[in-house]
Amino acid sequence: MNHLAYQCHVILNESETLNSLKDEKFDITVVDGFNPCSFLVAEKLGLPFVAVFPGTFANGPQVGIPSTLSYVPREELMSLISAIVQNQVQTKFENVIKEHFPAGSRPVLSELYLEAELWIYNTDFSFEFAHLLLPNTVYIGGLLAKPAKPLSQVSKLLLEDESVPKMSDICMNLSLRF
């Protein structure tokens, strides 16, 4: 996480770029839910934000998603090592915040996570434990999936040819062997 804090320091020092972004008068920003710096940049620009998280609900408790025992096993309990790493991450970014935000209006990362207008998770509900979801939380599993392309002529001919073994035949044969 050192590199993320360092990158954040460099980005927040780019006052010309930040001023240029402010001058554009954007309505909202889309931030990376994994990188705490993206929340700080949105805060610096004074913009509301939508956070996109690239995977499962690893940050559920941070963003206020309830994880009651009746729904979710006690997976959110941190080990000692996890707690130390999390504390180091917070400390690294606290130093960046102290340097780039005035004393009276310093944001707190844990509060910034709760300010997202919308949390988008690139996962599928079937990969997750059942969760109570907040109204500002959505799944968009399949974000990286591409639509199917039409079959080429060669593929069509192979599918129609009875002498060529089909994938379903091959899979069935393999499963019968084991």
Automatic annotation (TrEMBL):
<keyword id="KW-0732">Signal</keyword>
<dbReference type="Pfam" id="PF00201">
    <property type="entry name" value="UDPGT"/>
</dbReference>
<protein>
    <recommendedName>
        <fullName>glucuronosyltransferase</fullName>
        <ecNumber>2.4.1.17</ecNumber>
    </recommendedName>
</protein>
<keyword id="KW-0325">Glycoprotein</keyword>
<comment type="similarity">
    <text>Belongs to the UDP-glycosyltransferase family.</text>
</comment>
<keyword id="KW-0812">Transmembrane</keyword>
<dbReference type="InterPro" id="IPR050271">
    <property type="entry name" value="UDP-glycosyltransferase"/>
</dbReference>
<dbReference type="GO" id="GO:0015020">
    <property type="term" value="F:glucuronosyltransferase activity"/>
</dbReference>
<keyword id="KW-0328">Glycosyltransferase</keyword>
<keyword id="KW-1133">Transmembrane helix</keyword>
<keyword id="KW-0472">Membrane</keyword>
<dbReference type="GO" id="GO:0043541">
    <property type="term" value="C:UDP-N-acetylglucosamine transferase complex"/>
</dbReference>
<keyword id="KW-0808">Transferase</keyword>
<dbReference type="InterPro" id="IPR002213">
    <property type="entry name" value="UDP_glucos_trans"/>
</dbReference>
